[in-house]
Automatic annotation (TrEMBL):
<dbReference type="InterPro" id="IPR005482">
    <property type="entry name" value="Biotin_COase_C"/>
</dbReference>
<protein>
    <recommendedName>
        <fullName>biotin carboxylase</fullName>
        <ecNumber>6.3.4.14</ecNumber>
    </recommendedName>
</protein>
<dbReference type="InterPro" id="IPR011764">
    <property type="entry name" value="Biotin_carboxylation_dom"/>
</dbReference>
<keyword id="KW-0547">Nucleotide-binding</keyword>
<dbReference type="Pfam" id="PF02785">
    <property type="entry name" value="Biotin_carb_C"/>
</dbReference>
<dbReference type="InterPro" id="IPR011761">
    <property type="entry name" value="ATP-grasp"/>
</dbReference>
<dbReference type="InterPro" id="IPR000089">
    <property type="entry name" value="Biotin_lipoyl"/>
</dbReference>
<feature type="compositionally biased region" description="Low complexity">
    <location>
        <begin position="530"/>
        <end position="542"/>
    </location>
</feature>
<feature type="domain" description="Lipoyl-binding">
    <location>
        <begin position="535"/>
        <end position="614"/>
    </location>
</feature>
<dbReference type="InterPro" id="IPR050856">
    <property type="entry name" value="Biotin_carboxylase_complex"/>
</dbReference>
<dbReference type="InterPro" id="IPR005479">
    <property type="entry name" value="CPAse_ATP-bd"/>
</dbReference>
<keyword id="KW-0092">Biotin</keyword>
<feature type="region of interest" description="Disordered">
    <location>
        <begin position="495"/>
        <end position="542"/>
    </location>
</feature>
<dbReference type="InterPro" id="IPR011053">
    <property type="entry name" value="Single_hybrid_motif"/>
</dbReference>
<feature type="region of interest" description="Disordered">
    <location>
        <begin position="458"/>
        <end position="477"/>
    </location>
</feature>
<dbReference type="InterPro" id="IPR005481">
    <property type="entry name" value="BC-like_N"/>
</dbReference>
<dbReference type="GO" id="GO:0004075">
    <property type="term" value="F:biotin carboxylase activity"/>
</dbReference>
Length: 624
């Protein structure tokens, strides 16, 4: 094999995955290059990168042209996309390759064959791997759903082909729901296609962490179980997948091998399946990138999957993959309120303490003072816990949660604490397997947590006072580190206090750690400890005057009504997106829209008005 030397690697991402990749880049002796937006100027990833450069004003991490221009300007050898953003965009991959830069991922052709849900179903059929029962063609009308359900029964699920991470999924239970669902209008407005499948309700979510090199060498690094989910997004993952029935491991390996060979896949991938109590194995999808939960596979094998990606991308061999030893569990710490149905929460992190000790690994991209906004997904950190056995790993999970402190923003740790006491997860059911399914969190756990909250028994999250920052003693001249931008490049400058001017001097820089950062370009990325009130998603949905308000801080992605329109109860009014989750706002009653004070693309806070709806009786009286 001919290998290439990758000396300068641009990481086209942010947060914990950017940190994860740049650490491996540093281990390999290469230079890490990180683009960032103003919100991430003071992020840990920007601090640790060898070189960090500001994206052009108004650009984001999905601005392919800006990222490629930066890569060319800085002479990079490779681009690692992380996950999310442009990681599964074959057009971006093609542009990178056309520019003579190594793309750390599969070929654009393989991405197209596997990244789209329709083409993935067709690929699975060619590979002889059974997908979940469904239709391998676009669904454009409710009648197609009704006809399919007449044969296979309800519930069924509509999936947007441009969805991902649990977004764009609609579950239907009846013909009436099929006729009234906003999914068709929403997909058409967004230029997306819908896929129809039977909803497999009583199943585990199992997957294989795979790798395949350019010579065709293939390995399953480990299996994983990712059954614990909410809104089709994973919360707890473990490796290897426990309590697999006889023969299932071998079937998983062969199915995964066939899928990747069929498309000539080169790189690291995850093949996902549903496993029913009867032993049926249904193909879900292939993720042509690194997964959030890759850490548990690394922990049980001692493999660095980022290094594997870079080695294969450079033309190197897969090499020997160690057999799994022990057990590893990943707890995703997200900004969601388990007492309110996992509603997204925002705010400033006023205090942060992660656990430590034997078997504990933390993957996080945030620090105290960071602002959690609806612009990105709700993941704060991953607590990865490993033991010599599953029992030891579970015990260490409980210790890790007891040591974890996050204040200023609501997080999901009470849910993890609860599920780790439940025998369905910790024990073995009567059939010799786990007693959980992909619907278990939503159907069995969240209602239990919500019950006391509805009765007012769950205290609200408050700001805990923090001690003042240490002051300098007599005779000491303290220093402050300032973050500056010079020709678009992020640099740190440490100076004795007072050297930049006396009291009242103004500087367009950010400083740490002895004083609160100053806002750059008028935008503070980090707030001093103890100054921000705790924040979470508000529960209000409407006021007495007919005003329907946002239940959380979010971005308005679509408005389906207008002033003067008549609507029926249940009609879709507004679509919100918060932390990569879609939230549909429906009309609570019949009436006429009298005001729509928001526009598409606008950011709204919890309790902000979205639509004013006069009841039908009022509008009838006015017309009379």
């Amino acid at each position: 094999m001919t290998t290439r030397k990758l000396n300068r690697i641009l990481i086209a991402n942010r947060g914990e995955i950017a940190l994860r990749v740049l650490r491996t880049v540093r281990d390999l002796g290469a230079t890490s290059i990180l683009p960032y937006t103003p919100e991430d100027l003071l992020s840990p990833a920007a601090e640790l990168a060898d070189e960090a450069y500001a994206l052009p004003e108004g650009s984001t991490y999905t601005d392919a042209a800006a990222l490629l221009a930066l890569a060319q300007a800085q002479g990079v050898d490779a681009i690692h996309p992380g996950y999310g953003f442009l990681a599964e965009d074959p057009a971006f991959a093609r542009a990178v390759i056309a520019a003579g830069i190594t793309w750390v991922g599969p070929s654009p052709v393989a991405m197209e064959a596997l990244g789209d849900k329709l083409s993935a179903r067709a690929t699975a059929e060619r590979a002889g791997v059974a997908p979940v029962p469904g239709i391998t063609s676009p669904v454009t009308s409710p009648q197609t759903v009704i006809d399919f359900a007449a044969l296979h029964g309800y519930p069924v699920v509509l999936k947007r082909t441009d969805g991902g991470g649990g977004r764009g999924i609609t579950v239907l239970h009846s013909d009436d729901e099929a006729r009234s669902t906003p999914a068709f209008d929403s997909a058409q407005a967004g230029g997306a296609t819908l896929v129809l499948e039977k909803l497999v309700t009583a199943a585990r979510h199992v997957e294989t962490q795979c790798a395949r090199d350019g010579a065709g060498a293939f390995a399953v690094v480990s299996t994983r179980d990712c059954t614990l989910q909410r809104r089709n997004q994973k919360l707890l993952e473990e490796a290897p997948a426990p309590f697999l029935p006889a023969g299932v491991h071998e079937r998983l390996v062969e199915a995964s091998r066939s899928l990747l060979e069929t498309v000539g896949y080169v790189g690291v991938a995850t093949c996902e399946f549903l496993l029913t109590p009867a032993g049926e194995l249904w193909f879900l999808e292939v993720n042509p990138r690194l997964q959030v939960e890759h850490c548990v596979s690394e922990e049980v094998t001692g493999t660095d999957l980022v290094e594997t990606q870079l080695r294969i991308a450079a033309g190197g061999p897969l090499g020997e993959v160690p057999a799994p030893r022990g057990h590893s569990i990943e707890l995703r710490i997200t900004c969601e309120d388990p007492f309110r149905g996992m509603a997204p929460a925002t705010g400033a992190i006023t205090r942060l303490r992660w656990p430590a000790g034997p078997g504990i690994r933390i993957e996080s991209g945030v620090s105290e003072g960071d602002e959690v906004t609806p612009l990105f997904d709700p993941l704060l950190a991953k607590i990865v816990v490993t033991g010599s056995s599953r029992e030891q790993a579970l015990s260490r999970c409980r210790r890790a949660l007891a040591e974890t402190v996050v204040e200023g923003v609501t997080v999901c740790t009470p849910l993890h604490e609860h599920v780790l006491t439940r025998p369905e997860l910790t024990g073995v059911d009567a059939q010799g397997g786990l007693g959980v399914t992909t619907r278990w969190i939503e159907e069995e756990v969240l209602p239990v947590l919500a019950a006391p909250a509805a009765e007012g028994e769950v205290p609200g999250l408050g700001t805990v006072p923090t001690p003042p920052l240490p002051q300098s003693g007599p005779g000491q001249r303290t220093r402050s580190t300032y973050v500056i931008e010079l020709n678009g490049r992020r640099l740190s400058l440490t100076l004795p206090d007072g050297i930049l001017g006396g009291p009242g001097a103004r500087h367009n820089v950010g400083a740490r750690p002895h004083r609160a950062p100053q806002p750059l370009r008028g935008r503070a990325s980090r707030l001093p400890r103890g100054t921000a009130e705790a924040a979470g998603a508000a529960g209000a949905t409407g006021d007495a005057d007919g005003t329907i308000v946002a239940p959380m801080q979010a971005i308005v992605t679509r408005i389906s009504t207008s002033e003067g329109s008549r609507v029926r109860q249940g009609d879709l009014l507004v679509v919100l997106e918060s932390m990569k989750m879609e939230n549909y706002v429906h009309a609570p009653h019949d009436g006429q829209v009298t005001a729509v004070p928001v526009t598409a693309g606008q950011t709204v806070g919890a309790g902000d008005p979205l639509v004013t709806l006069a009841p039908q009786s009022e509008t009838s009286q006015q017309e009379a």
